[in-house]
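To close the section, here is one more complete example, presented without commentary so you can practise reading it yourself. The ligand is iron/sulfur cluster.
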Amino acid sequence: MSVSNELGQSLDRDNLDKQAMGDTLREECGVFGIFGHPDATALTALGLHALQHRGQEASGIVAYDNEAKRFHSERRLGLVGDTFSKRHVIERLPGSAAVGHVRYSTTGETILRNVQPLFAELDGGGFAVAHNGNLTNALSLRRQLVRDGAIMQSTSDTEVILHLLARSKRARFVERFVDAIREIEGAYSFVGLTNKKLVGARDPLGIRPLVLGELDGAPILTSETCALDIIGAKFVRDVENGEVIIVGEAGIESHKPFPVMQPRPCIFEYIYFARPDSVVGGKSVYQVRRNLGTELAKESPATADVVVPVPDSGVPAAIGFAQASNIPYELGIIRNHYVGRTFIEPTQQIRELGVRMKHSANRAAVAGKRIVLIDDSLVRGTTSVKIVRMMREAGAKEVHFRIASPPITHPDFYGIDTPDKDKLLAATYDLEGMRNYIGADSLAFLSVDGLYRAMGHEKRNPEKPQYTDHCFTGEYPTPLTDKTGEITPRQLSLLAEAS
Ligand code: SF4
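Output:
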C-alpha cells in the first residue's frame, strides 16, 4: 500500500530518487551540432552522451550527407547509449554535418513523433531543428497556424518554428529564420541544419545556455562545454543572448536581429542543471556551487560534528560549507550509480523491507554524530523527509539541513519541469513549517543575495536583475502569453501576412 502525505505525495520508504519522485527541477534537453567533420555523427553521439544529464527520455540525430544530397535521421526513446552506441546505427547516418538532441519532455508527450531533432522539407530544402527551452506563446501560435491550415506532426512546442519558417516569404534562409524567431517568446537555444548550413540561436535574454566550439576546424554549437571536453574540442565562446549563428562553407556569420538586451541567463543552471565540470557564461559551475556552500555557512552556520552532502548535486556546496565552517566533511550517504541500469524490480513485500535502491546511509560516518546535510535545492520536500529519517535510523544524534539555494516558490515556464505551485513545499509552508515537515532539527536556505554573492555579485540588482531567477522571486522575465491567453501584436503580423 503506497503511503502519501497531505500534499498527495508518495512517502514510500525505499524511493529516495529525487528524479523518480519528481522532487527536483528537471532540465529539459540538451543540443549539439557540428559542421564540416567526417565523423560528424559519432562526435554528435558523444556530445549528447555528455549532455545526458539534461534529458534521459529520448535522443535523436539528423545528419546531412553531401554526397548523396540527403538527410538521414535516427530518433529513439531511451538513453543515448541505448541507441547510438551501436556501430550500425552510426553507419546509417553518414554525412559531415549533424545535429542532435537529448530530451526530457516539458511540452508534448513522450512519444516518438515528439523526439527531436524535428525535420521538415521546406521551400529551398530540408531543415532539422533541436531545441532546449520552452516557448511561452507556442500554444497561441499553434492555434493560429492550425486555423490557417497548418498540419501539425507533433505536440511539441518546437514544431511552430518549422511552420513559421515555411511561411516566411523572404529569399535567404537566415532572413526566414529571423522572421520565425521574431514571432516566438520564452526561452530557447536552437541548433538547426539545412543542406548547406548549421544554425544556432539563443533567445534575447539568453535564458538557456549555448556555446561555440571547434574541432579540427569544424565549428560546434552545443548546450554545455562538457560536450566539447568529451571530444577534445576547443571552447571558442558563448553564443550571446539574442544572437543567431550561421555556419557554412564560407565560415561563421553572426547576426543580432533583436534590440540589445541585458543577458539574464537561468541561475538554476549553476545551482543544479549544468554539469559541475562545465563552464557557463565564463563561470565554473563547480566553483559557483562551492561558493554557494561558503555563503550558506556564513549566513546559516550549524553546530555539528560532520557535514554530509546529499549526493551528487549537493557535493560541491557541502565542500564549500565544510571548509567555511571548519567542520569535517563526510560521505554520510552513499549513492548507487547503477540504479538506472538495475532490473531488480522489488516486490511489495521487498519494498516494505525498505530497500534503498539509490541512496543508503553510511553508518560509520553518522552514528552518534550531530550532522548537517547539504543539498542543492528543495522542491516538494519528499526526498528530504526520507533522507532525514534515513540519517536518524543510521544513528545520527541531530540532523540539521541546509539548502544551497533560496526557497522555490514559483513554477517555471522556460523549459524546466517544475511541479505546480501548490506542490512546491516553500509555496505551502513557512520555514518552521518546512522544518517540521522534513523532520529536521533545523533548516535554512541560502538567501537570494547570498546566491548572487556566490555568483560574484555584491547582491541582486532589483532594477536590472543579472539572472533569470523567477522560481525564487516570482519575477518572470518575459510575457507568459499562453498562460495569460492574450495574443501579442507582433504575432498578428506574420499570420496576417500568411492569410
Ligand atoms: S524558473 Fe527561471 S531561474 Fe528557475 S529554473 Fe526556470 S528559468 Fe531558471
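Once you have examined the C-alpha cells, check your reading against these statements. Confidence is low (pLDDT under 50) at residues 1-16, 486-499. The chain has two domains: 2-263, 284-484.
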